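Worked example 2:
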Amino acid sequence: MNKVVVGLSGGVDSSVAAATLHHQGYDVVGLTLWLMKGKGQCCSEGMVDAASLCEQLGIPHHIVDSRDVFQANIIDYLVSGYESGITPLPCSQCNKAVKFGPMLQYATEQLGVKQIATGHYARIQYDPTRQRYQLLRAVDSTKDQSYFLYDLTQDLLAASLFPLGNQTKEETRRIAAEFGLFTADKPDSQDLCLIEAHGSMRDFLDKYIKPTGGDIVDLDGKVLGKHTGVHHYTIGQRKGIGIAAPEPLYVVKLDPVMNQVVVGSRENAGKSDCIVSRLNWVSIAEPSTPIRAQVQVRYRTPAVDVNLIPLENGFLKLIFDDPQFGITPGQAAVFYDGEVLLGGGIIEKD
């Protein structure tokens, strides 16, 4: 019998992933990572619900204390990023460094299990021509989470299963009801786990970064108003700037050295190109010549046509067919060829 360790958060998606594999005859072991110190929905209620699910399915449940790993790789990473004037994307970092890697290590070293599974909406297939595992978008485009998985390595993809990748969220809830899972009607998590635990990203950051007021200026350096801390703002932001102007103003630059928030028109917030670093090529080998692709620069924005230009220093230049609004340093740029995720990296500051 195939054995698999399933990452359980206590939500409906991971519950159905575990129940589906169990129903298919896998020898399933549940694993929950304790990520945050103190109280937080995903680390208190979630662990209890994950344990209850395992009891319902009649499978073992393990809890691994990953709080120090989460602190170093996510919280410290976020705080240092915001202090330097970027807006980090924690989820892709978390998936590789905190979840998939440690999960597989625990599964193999402690349990002797070589496969892991999660409730992510994405698909994996092996391409014998390229001799690579490929990461594909989920069938349900409204729930596709491949964007957050671009940093997974070939070893991690080879060992991973995504049982929900070929179904819609509606089907997931229907299957949960058919299995009689108590999580069938549990609401989806709406925010980043840190926001759920602290109330807002602002509240979370203010625990670690002392708010220091400064000037809001236009592109010519003219002072238009005051801000409450550079880390309270992000590129492309319109609401909450607090300045009356004839036309809408958007944040176009964050300058922590000068302690300034720079604002301009929507046109000023558009960019025709950007530089990407910390690249991970998934479904193809690293290209040595320019290629055409589509790129997604935020989770909730559509993919757009782009030229990918390899640079000598290992960076990549992206030239968009049309200028893109709110290109944000610290966020992920993820490259696709249709439904196939080619790779991705982190958007650099100018």
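The chain has eight helices and 17 strands. The chain has three domains: 3-197, 210-264, 271-347.
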